[in-house]
Specification:
LysR_HTH_N; 10 helices; DNA binding; transcription; single chain; alpha/beta; five-stranded mixed beta sheet; Arc Repressor Mutant, subunit A; HTH-type transcriptional regulator MetR; about 325 residues; 3 domains; D-Maltodextrin-Binding Protein, domain 2
């Protein structure tokens, strides 16, 4: 057994603060005799006297003063940890270390984070930078706590909250020959330069849900990091691009670009917030999902509510 326990430190602090054995005993919910016994036991363990008896207020020895210094260092940290654990147990505190598989999502994510931090100040929140790793496996391992993705896969232990559905549209310059079509067919893109974010084509709706299923390969794929850069390249006739309808809205409103649906029915992916199943019911996680949805539907044009039956099995 350790010589010094937390109860000893609490008793010494009570003795210092009250100045008498009687009042200290009341503060730590002991009888005076039990408190005296506890202090004598501690002195026996460490082999030192802690305070001078029969002095008022109590006068501590060098050993007692050293233990009080320890108490002043340790007890506040213990109390703080206990409060944090209580918040965690009540769902008021936690950690959300997130990653984003959607380049254009920063447009709505940062305002959502600002709102969330105001409403959930005790939650530690951070964003992993970069798109060059597999975030869903990292989520399952516990390296991440939340992933924004439009490409859910059946990962063991992962739950997907649908945020919203959107149309993936093809953007082209105002004088592009395809502007004359009511909608785009896969074969129309066989001779086109497709401008995309720098990610693998197996993570892009244009390929996975449109070109690949028809066995069509574009003339060339060109990469650009930013949505504004892609829009500028498309507007200047350097190629075409597939982007979310809400990300294209401002460019079409300014008559900067022309957009068309991919196929007669269009392609409507769903954006999800993926979390580990053991955290899916945590209030601070559900709070983030609710705020993200609210911010999106308040600010994004063209999005619709995702149907529950679109949830993937996991």
């Amino acid at each position: 057994m350790s010589h010094i326990e937390l109860r000893h430190l609490k008793t010494l602090v009570a003795l210092r603060d009250t100045g008498s054995l009687v009042e200290a005993a009341e503060r730590v919910f002991l009888t005076q005799s039990a408190l005296s016994h506890q202090l004598k036991e501690l002195e026996s363990r460490i082999g030192c006297t802690l305070f001078v008896r029969k002095t008022k207020p109590v006068r501590f020895t060098s050993a007692g003063t050293r233990l009080l210094k320890l108490a002043d260092e340790v007890l506040p940290r213990v109390h703080g940890t206990e409060r944090d654990l209580q918040r965690l147990a009540g769902g008021e505190s936690g950690r959300i270390f997130m990653a984003i598989e959607c380049h254009s999502c920063f447009e709505w994510l940062l305002p959502a984070i600002d709102v969330y931090r105001d409403q959930w100040p005790d939650v530690e929140l951070d964003i992993s930078s970069g798109f060059h790793f597999a975030p869903l496996p990292a989520l399952g391992r516990g390296d991440l706590d939340l992933v924004i993705t439009a490409d859910p896969v059946p990962e063991l232990g992962v739950h997907y909250f649908p945020l919203f559905s959107y149309e993936a549209q093809l953007a082209m310059s105002k004088d592009h020959v395809l502007r004359a079509k009511d909608w785009i067919e896969p074969a129309d893109l066989a001779d086109e330069v497709v401008i995309t974010y720098p990610v693998d084509t197996d993570r892009l709706d244009l390929f996975t849900s449109f070109l690949d299923v028809a066995g069509v390969t574009p003339k060339r794929v060109r990469h650009a990091e930013l949505t504004t850069m892609i829009a500028q390249l498309v507007a200047s006739g350097r190629g075409v691009a597939c982007l979310p309808n809400w990300a294209l809205y401002e460019y079409t409103q300014k008559d900067y670009l022309v957009v068309r649906s991919l196929g007669e029915e269009g392609i409507w992916p769903t954006l999800y917030a993926a979390v580990r199943k053991d955290q899916a019911q945590a209030p601070f996680i559900q709070g983030f999902v609710e705020i993200a949805r609210a911010v999106c539907f308040e600010n994004l044009q063209g999005i619709v509510t995702a149907e529950l039956d679109e949830l993937p099995e996991s």
